[in-house]
Amino acid sequence: MYFRAINNDTYFDYYTIEKGDTLYKISKEYNINPTLLASLNGLNTTDYIYPGQVLLVPNQNYSYYITKSGDTLDTVAKTFDIGIDKLIHDNNVIYLLEGQMIVKKKN
Questions:
Q1: How many domains in the chain?
Q2: Greater pLDDT, 48 or 5
Q3: Residue 26 is part of a domain; what is its CATH number?
């Protein structure tokens, strides 16, 4: 999978894993989808996480989408319910390779 590194801390918060944490527990605490949390961190939902490990947690001011094979600018824009111009504005680079993270700033 391809993930574009974003050098902008406003997209994410950081969470340090504590003993007893699971991806599902962290997802519930931050009100996010566990599959998205795993994907953003290069993990599967079944992967082991360990105390001291740092995860990227999506900032609540953004919506996130991980591209799939066959996605187009039009299908991604429709997913976010925005125009293609706004989609391009909110993202520095869009390759539409499977596994690319695309963001949209919430209003």
A1: 1
A2: 48
A3: 3.10.350.10
